[in-house]
Structure formats: structure tokens, C-alpha cells
């Protein structure tokens, strides 16, 4: 019996009680991660510990100043400047000066453009893969299916976006098996591009510079995998004792190697699609670098993470993207940011500037994803958001039952 037959049968065992709790925990976990970043990591300790209230206040105010919004918060009576006016938080004139630094409009527009191009390159990659699989569909329908799937991940944990893309393709007439293969192969190329980017970065740094970064890449990735599990998977104590095996299973190592071996039978198509994937990843990293530069202010002699060059930034961003492949929280919220902050710290950057940059990068990625998701919903035939989530939940439950019965 297939997973869909189990889902539609209705007479099988009831849903395990932890499934609903697991969904709720996916939201709570994201908020806890961000709370940890903002309350524990942000304060650059002038005080005796990160818990010091003076250090915490100083760090939070400076981070808000980095976002250029102190004046607006004063107008809304959220903060008061130099003890003048209303507001629950006092900021001094120095922090207002930080907030009023020159804003880099040119790198900001470059960030928007390159992030949009990165997303379109990924959508074109899916189009190439579906066309290669012989799936009959319009270009608009297939591109919209990709943006629809990316947008679904903004709202729900456990990454139902790939399932949503598959569902949108089948709703537009694609056969399920080749559509599923195309969607999975798109993920294969995404992981391959990240691995190639990391390998190039480590080679550039050399043995001495790459060892610590490589170790922390493994540690952080393994940590994300150990803290997160796919929807419906019960607790297995052996998982934690065999974290390397768990890491392999979490990324679908067996399926990845099988897919790569099949793709290598057509080396021209493989290399071309990999090149497109590397372009997409490179554009995204350039977008993240540009948003950092936009909120820096070279004319006022202030640059976020001034001593961090592009290659270490690329490595840090690639590790965060690799962790984002395990989509436990909605929009990978919290996971992406904390991994990025920790990787910046590996390269001797402060938590405050690292957190500012990580939050800006997350806002850019998710903002552009939403900006492309809305027209995809309007201009193309896409299924209901709640319908997709319900089907994804039922599919996960069917997989759990099939695993339990095996």
C-alpha cells in the first residue's frame, strides 16, 4: 500500500499525539533561537557577562541604531533621545548619530537585483529539469510552481515547499513520478553548489586558515541536524549515538549519491545545470554581501565587519545555507541566523555586528521570497496554501505509519 493510499484510507491508526506538538514546537523553537541570539549573543560584553543588563541595553540599542530606525522609534514614542520626550528606552545622541549614518542605496538596489536574479536562476533550473523529464507544462506554470513552493516555506515548519512545488506541477498536468524526480534533483544541485562553494573557499584559505572553519562547519551542521527531526519521526536514542549516520540520513545521502550517479551519465547536462546552480548561489551570496554594505557607511568610516573579506563571508553564508536545507522552522527562521552569527564568530567578528548582518540577510531572503510568491499566486494556477499544508501533514503521517508498519 502506498503512502497516499494510507492517507486516504482513513481506517488506519490515529495520528500520534506528538505530531501536532511537533508542529507547534517548530514555531516555538524558531522564536527561542532568535531570543537566544538577541539576548545572549548581541551584548558585546563591557560588563562581566552577557547577562549584564548594561551590556544588554548597550548592545540592543547599538543594533537598533545599525538598522537606522532610532528616529522613527522616537517619533513613535518607543524610545526617547537624551531623556527628552516619551519612551521606555533612553538613547543618547551618539547612538542617534550612528543611526543617521549615510545609507548605501547603490548596494541596497544591487542586493535586491541580485537576490531576485538568484531566485529566477533557481526557477529556471527547475524548468530545465522538468523539461528534461518530459513534463508538459507552460514556462509560466513551472516558474510559478517554484516560487509558490518557496513562499509556502515562509509560513510553515518542516519545509513543505518542495511538496507544494510538486503539488502545483501535478495540478497543472504533470505526472507525479517525473515531477517528484525533478523537484528532488533541484535540491541535489542546490546542495552540490553549496558543497562546491565551501570546497573552493577552504582551498582559498589554505590548510592553516581552513581547519577551524571546516571543523565548525561540521559541528554546526551536525548540531542543527541533532536538534531537528523531520515531521512525524519518533525519538530514536540511536540517532544521537550515531550522529554521522543521522547527518547522512538527514540530507538523504543515499538518494543524493544515486541521483548524482544517474546525472553523471549525461555529463554535459550535469555540468551545465551545476554551473547554473553555482551562478544562482553566487548571486545570492553577492546579494547578502551587498545588503551588509548597504547598512554600512564607508563615507562615515563605519563598515559592518570591516575586517571580514569576501571569501570568509562566502564560507559563512554557505554554511548557513547548508543548515537551511534542513527546514525545521518556518523560513528556517532562527536556524539560518544563529549559524551565520556563529560562523562570523569563527572568523573573529563580534556577535553584535554578526547578528545585525544575519538579521539583514534573513530579511532580504525572506522579503524577496515573499515578493515573488505573491505574483506567482496571482498570475498562475496555484493550489490553496492551507490545502497544501493539510496534504503535506497527511503525507508525513502516512510515511510515519508506513515506517512503523515495516
SSE blueprint:
Elements: H1 3-9, H2 18-41, H3 53-66, H4 70-75, E1 79-81, E2 89-91, H5 93-99, H6 105-132, H7 139-152, H8 161-171, H9 176-227, H10 237-241, H11 243-250, H12 253-263, H13 267-294, H14 310-324, H15 335-346, H16 351-379, H17 385-405
Parallel strand pairs: 1-2
Explain what you see.
The radius of gyration is 23 Å and the shape is globular. It is mainly α and about 400 residues long. The chain has helices at about 5-10, 20-40, 55-65, 70-75, 95-100, 105-130, 140-150, 160-170, 175-225, 235-240, 245-250, 255-265, 265-295, 310-325, 335-345, 350-380, 385-405; strands spanning about 80, 90. It has one domain. The N and C termini lie close together (about 10 Å). About 40% of the residues are buried. Strands 1-2 form a two-stranded parallel ribbon. It is built from 17 helices and two strands. α1 (about 5-10) packs across α17 (about 385-405). The chain is about 70% helix and about 0% strand.
Summarize the structure.
With 406 residues, the protein is mainly alpha-helical. It has one domain (105-405).
Amino acid at each position: 500500500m502506498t503512502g497516499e493510499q494510507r492517507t486516504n484510507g482513513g481506517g488506519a491508526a490515529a495520528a500520534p499525539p506528538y505530531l501536532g506538538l511537533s508542529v507547534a514546537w517548530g514555531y516555538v523553537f524558531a522564536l527561542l533561537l532568535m531570543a537566544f541570539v538577541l539576548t545572549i549573543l548581541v551584548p558585546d560584553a563591557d560588563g562581566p557577562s552577557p547577562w549584564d543588563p548594561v551590556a544588554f541595553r548597550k548592545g540592543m540599542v547599538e543594533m537598533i541604531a545599525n538598522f537606522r530606525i532610532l528616529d522613527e522609534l522616537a517619533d513613535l514614542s518607543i524610545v526617547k533621545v537624551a531623556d527628552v520626550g516619551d519612551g521606555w528606552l533612553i538613547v543618547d545622541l551618539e547612538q542617534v548619530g550612528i543611526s543617521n549614518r549615510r545609507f548605501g542605496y547603490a548596494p541596497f538596489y544591487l542586493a535586491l537585483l541580485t537576490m531576485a536574479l538568484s531566485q529566477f536562476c533557481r526557477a529556471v533550473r527547475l524548468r530545465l529539469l522538468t523539461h528534461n523529464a518530459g513534463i508538459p507544462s507552460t514556462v509560466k506554470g513551472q516558474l510559478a510552481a517554484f516560487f509558490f513552493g518557496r513562499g509556502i516555506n515562509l509560513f510553515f515548519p518542516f519545509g513543505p515547499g518542495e511538496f507544494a512545488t510538486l503539488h502545483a506541477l501535478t495540478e497543472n498536468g504533470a505526472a507525479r513520478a517525473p515531477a517528484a524526480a525533478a523537484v528532488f534533483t533541484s535540491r541535489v544541485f542546490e546542495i552540490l553548489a553549496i558543497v562546491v562553494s565551501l570546497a573552493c573557499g577552504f582551498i582559498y584559505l589554505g590548510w592553516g586558515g581552513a581547519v577551524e572553519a571546516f571543523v565548525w562547519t561540521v559541528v554546526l551542521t551536525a548540531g542543527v541536524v541533532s536538534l531537528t527531526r523531520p515531521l512525524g519521526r519518533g525519538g530514536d536514542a540511536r540517532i544521537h549515538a550515531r550522529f554521522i549516520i543521522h547527518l547522512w540520513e538527514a540530507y538523504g545521502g543515499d538518494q543524493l549519491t544515486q541521483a548524482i550517479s544517474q546525472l553523471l551519465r549525461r555529463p554535459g547536462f550535469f555540468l551545465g545545470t551545476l554551473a547554473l546552480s553555482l551562478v544562482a548561489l553566487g548571486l545570492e551570496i553577492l546579494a547578502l554581501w551587498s545588503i551588509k554594505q548597504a547598512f554600512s557607511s564607508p563615507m562615515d568610516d563605519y563598515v559592518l565587519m570591516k575586517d571580514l573579506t569576501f571569501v570568509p563571508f562566502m564560507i559563512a553564508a554557505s554554511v548557513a545555507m547548508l543548515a537551511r536545507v534542513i527546514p525545521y522552522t518556518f523560513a528556517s527562521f532562527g536556524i539560518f541566523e544563529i549559524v551565520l552569527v556563529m560562523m562570523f564568530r569563527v572568523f573573529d567578528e563580534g556577535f553584535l555586528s554578526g547578528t545585525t548582518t544575519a538579521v539583514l540577510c534573513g530579511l532580504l531572503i525572506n522579503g524577496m521570497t515573499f515578493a515573488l510568491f505573491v505574483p506567482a499566486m496571482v498570475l498562475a494556477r496555484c493550489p490553496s496554501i492551507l490545502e497544501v499544508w493539510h496534504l503535506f501533514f497527511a503525507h508525513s503521517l502516512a510515511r510515519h505509519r508506513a515506517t512503523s508498519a515495516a
